[in-house]
Design brief:
With 143 residues, this protein is an alpha+beta fold. It has one domain. The protein has six helices and four strands, in the order E-E-H-H-E-H-H-H-H-E. The protein starts with 15 loop residues before the first strand and ends with a strand.
Length: 143
């Protein structure tokens, strides 16, 4: 199971990050985009900001393949660590939570949530890689 949402019709509300497989074209909720709930995407913020310091969760950023490839390397390293059995306490410097509440909720089902996080990293990385091969860009459309 993964945190990715592939159908915009399945979204409830607007607290989602949209990943669009090209340069931002000024539209939202695109049929070829993928979506993550804000609090799931937030876990990746430290990695995103490390390679794209101007990231803004409320903005619209087109990110090039060079930057994404650096991000993808860190996603892969984190996924490998999760696969080897690392816990939240081991990876806490590489992820973030929106609040103490979301961290506590994540830790309450740590085993299952870490498996979902790993699956999300792998699925997200594959989607981004495929998009980059086609267009050379992936845009992050904030909330």
């Amino acid at each position: 199971m993964s945190y990715l949402i592939r159908d915009a019709n399945a979204l409830k509300g607007t607290a989602y990050i949209e990943l669009y497989p090209d340069r931002f074209i000024g539209t939202h909720w695109n049929s070829n985009s993928i979506f993550l709930e804000e609090f799931h995407w937030e876990m990746f913020r430290p990695i995103i900001v490390k390679h794209f310091p101007d990231y803004n969760a409320y903005g619209f950023q087109t990110i090039s393949a060079d930057v994404w490839n650096s991000i993808l390397r860190d996603f892969g390293a984190l996924s490998t660590r999760l696969e080897s059995g690392e816990r939240v306490s081991d990876i806490i410097s590489d992820i973030s939570f929106m609040s103490e509440y979301t961290e506590n909720e994540f830790r309450a089902n740590e085993d299952g949530n870490l498996k979902e996080l790993e699956a999300t990293l792998n699925e997200l990385s594959a989607w981004i890689s495929g998009s980059l091969r086609e267009t050379g860009f992936v845009s992050v459309l904030g909330i």
